[in-house]
Each structure stands twice: as C-alpha cells, then as structure tokens.
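thread from #wetlab-drylab

HS: before we spend reagent money on co-crystallization trials with adenosine monophosphate, can we at least see a predicted complex? here's what I'd submit
DV: go for it
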Amino acid sequence: MKDINVLVINCGSSSLKFQLINSQSEDVIAKGLCERIGIEGSQITYTPAGGEKYETVTPMPDHTRAIELVLKELTDPERGVVKSLDEIGAVGHRLVHGGEKFASSTLINDEVIKAIEECNDLAPLHNPANLIGIRACRELMPDTPMAGVFDTAFHQTMPQEAYLYGVPYRFYEEHKVRRYGFHGTSHSFVSRRAAEILGREYEDLKFIVCHLGNGASISAVKNGKCVDTSMGLTPLEGLIMGTRSGDIDPAIIEYLCNKEDKSVHEILNVLNKESGVLGLSGGFSSDFRDLEKAYREGDQAAVRAMKTFIYRVVKYIGAYTAAMNGVDVICFTAGIGENNAFIRTSVCEYLAYLGISIDGEANAKRGEEVVISTPESSVKVLVVPTNEELAIARETVALL
Ligand code: AMP
C-alpha cells in the first residue's frame, strides 16, 4: 500500500467534515468540521491527533473559503500536521448519489464531474453540495489526484427484482425511478470487516447489515454482493429513523395534504424531519439515549417509538433472510447499532426462530468490535463499528 496522506472530505450544503488519514498506518492525523458555511457565525473545529481541539469563528462565505481554512489548519506551523500541501497525496470525496452511472468509486476528472451533475435531480440537496466541494478542492489543489466514493455504488449489484418498484416500467426507463440505496460505503466496510473478524471468506457468507444511526438502513449481502437494501430512490424509504418515517403507504401523502391543508413539499418535509422516532414519541426526541432513558422510566411515548422502531428492523431482517434463503451473519453498526445494547437485544429476541442466542456480557460492550452471539447461536451476530472515512481513504488509494 502506498504511504500517502489522504484528505477525506464530506461536503454538505452548509457543512464540511474532514479527516486526514495516513494510508499505511490508517491513523487519523487530524480531523475537523466547518459549520454554517455561507451563513453568519461560521466556525471551523480542528483537532490534530493527540492534540487539543481548536475552534475558530471566522467568516466562510463559500466552500472554497472553508477548504482554504482546512488546508491552512493542516499546514499551520504550530498546530498543523504536515509541512506543506505536497504532503497531501490525494483527496477522497464522499458523494451521495451516483445513480446507475457509478457502480464503484472513481478518479475525478471533467467527465466524471459532468456525470455526477447528471445525477443532481436524484439528490438535489446532496449532489450539488458534493460538487461544490470537488470544485473548491480542484481550485486549491489542482495537481492532487481526487477520488469520488459514492453512497449508492455498493448497492448497484442488486438484481432487478430488488431494485424495481411496482410502477409503470417507463418511469424507470424515462425517469430512473428505482431503488438505489445509501450508506453503501458503510454496508460494504462492515460486512467485509465481519468476515475478517470471523476468519471466513467474504464471498461464502450471507450477511444482513443493520446500519442504525440517525439515518438508518439495512442491507442483504450475499456472495460478496449487495442483493437488497431498505433505502430507495431517496433515503426516506425503509426503516423508521431518527426523524424520517421510512416506509409508509404513499397514498398517505395526498390524504394528509387534504386534511392538513399542506402542499406535497410540506408533507415530505414532515416525513423527513418531524417523523421517525421523533414523531412517534410526540416530538420528545430523535436521540436514542433520551428515548432509552424515558423507556426505562415507563414513558409511553418512548415505549411506542422504540417498539415500532425495533419491529420494523425485525421485519426487514425476516424479509432479507427470505430473500437470501438464509443468513449466516447479522451485523449492527452506526450510533445506535454500536452503542445501544437494549436495541440489539430487543431485535434479537424476535429472532429465536433463526436459532439466534445472544451473550449478555458480550452485548454489554459499547462501540467496539465484538461477536455478541453465543457459540451455539446458528447465526453469528456482531457489532462492527463503521468507519466510512477510512473506507473512503482506502478506496482512494486503491484507485491511484
Ligand atoms: P449516528 O447517526 O450514527 O451518529 O447515530 C446517532 C444515534 O446514535 C442517536 O440516536 C444516538 O442516541 C445514538 N448514539 C450515539 N452514541 C451513543 C451512545 N454512546 N450510547 C447510546 N446511543 C448512542
């Protein structure tokens, strides 16, 4: 493996997360976050490895200025971690939607930028922001190679019966309406890592990966390929999430537009931002730490939110077990999957029919790689912390 430093950039419409990762040691050398880009009160947070956190409030009218400040921090004579930009060998960009154009990561050139632009309609909030990040980096580091790693790419192996919706086929042909799926970098990273932990060949196993964070999705991975996933054309479909509804009857939208005298846009906003466990708990919280505490105190709003969340996960696991004609490994990852033992136990209690049993002591661990099933369990159940930044850095180096 080449020994270079890779700058991993995750660019949102008003924020930018970054990590500088050494490709050989895979250590994070520095990381940080620019917030409120283009809005008053913008701020950069920067943490060199082993050092203290620096927070600077400074104007960032656009993403170019934000990246300029990131590079300035990284090369700062006192708190910087590299002497010059020459010590940054590549940039890896997290990109949200690659449509059907990108089934894998790619080096970025003019043609690729055009192809990403052509996917803008599919992710109008995310792709334009990702492109701004790419253009800003190209302006400031014109000679540094850059790679794009797509959230959708891992799911491009799904068979047609998994990605088609039951709507007129011309909607797919003319408007590209189909399931794409997201969090692909995480589903790929976690399933591969689980195979390594178990000392088994990746291609020999059937995995179900539960990525349970504020955004949540689940995927079925068979013989090293994704065969189904719960998010769809957009990240709104599938599991009940922090604030997103997940699956609903689509006719609810028109019904609510009439009942609440709202536009489709307004109802979709409710489905994205005011639904999920936040909505189910009557607006109490989208955060599972708050919900679990309230659940334990017997709060009925928290009880119904958590039970409904768990039930949906269980239904998807059942569906994907059927889709793959069995399952060998179930993985839990992301904020809730890695940290919330109660959710894992509650999900697995439903799965006794699969011969699953959980080791309470192993399951009590938090945020670390651990097999939580007992040796007798017929399906291995693991917690595997996801690391999308490292996965992006690895993909970037592999492309060079
Ligand atoms: P993510 O989007 O992956 O950052 O996940 C966010 C969710 O993970 C929130 O609902 C948090 O409550 C949950 N979470 C994160 N850290 C912890 C923790 N240490 N203990 C319990 N839940 C956590």
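DV: Residues 201-383 form a domain with the Nucleotidyltransferase; domain 5 fold (CATH 3.30.420.40).
HS: ok that's useful, forwarding to the group
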